[in-house]
Here is the input.
Amino acid sequence: MLMMASVAFTGCVSDDGDADDTTVDDTTGDTTVEPVGEEAKSTLDVIIERGSLKCGIKTSQFGMGYLDSDTGVYSGLDVEYCRAVAAAIGLNPDENIEYVVASAGDRFTKLADKEIDVLIRTTTWTTSRDADLNADFAGINFYDGQGMLVNTGAHADADSIMDLDGAKVCTTTGTTTEGNLADYFTTNGLTYDVVGVADDGQAMEKFKAEDCTAWTGDMSNMVAQQWAVGNDANVTFGMAIMPELLSKEPLGAATRDNDADWNEVVTWVWYGMLTAEELGVDSSNYGDQDMENPAYSRLLNNNLGLGTEANPLSATWMQDVLNHVGNYHEAYDKSFCDGDGTMANCLVDRAGTMNAPYWEGGLQYAPPMR
Here is the structure.
């Protein structure tokens, strides 16, 4: 499939534990406390009543979140994660997911305003996002770092970011990417001109038009965009990705604060996919496992306390995930590689990287499922 080289709420809590809104009369100064109602309801219960999952994604990054305009098919590791979550809670991933485009500028607003149930969109877990943006992060589904894609026609001798003094750099405004760029260039005594963009689409246009001669973003995104630009016959300049990483970018799913039951589901779906790979369980053999073995029984035939009182996950929730999506290896292979089970022709290799499972020297590590 791929024909390029790979690179290595609001309110307070009352004494009885119920959530309340506190209001103050502007005239008398009296304080009244009113039940929040819907605010205290788990997102999981809302989803089950609605019958569909609203998943916030991006659609411009091949391998992570991508929409094929010709076929209308969504693909990528984030999309596979959305599908896995839907399957785990008893929905049909092929019919009961509404994909909502969440931009870099509005993703947390859409989450807080309940336009989406979960944000799975190459979002970096940072202190301020965790503390200030009414968001709780779930498991890290991709370890990334910020990279730099360079027009080698304009920067013929560039072998390093250190060679880009004075470059015009495209970056998405209002993101950690923009801040990391400023930090890195300042620390290293380099000057640059910011070419601010709202999204990948604008960045692509400006990069192709050579309005910017470098483009920075998550390394996985830079690899995907290099692939996309390289497929445009009208682009005549060469490109290269510089070897340095400007930052750490642990990408994770996010839910709203104080929504623990739902957050736990989102988190453990990812850990379940990773555990399944560790145990050698995949979409083709999950029905053949020996349930006398406690590890397989817990993974494949146990609720493990996940869900809400009204909507506990089924005992076979992980079987549903494996049936519709597969384990971590399968999801990665389908998203970045040929999808034939062999991790061949990958846009972004997993082997030898932080995204390899821990038993292969990477950082993907699931807590015990018991």
Observations:
- Residues 146-247 form a domain with the D-Maltodextrin-Binding Protein; domain 2 fold (CATH 3.40.190.10).
- The longest helix spans residues 260-278.
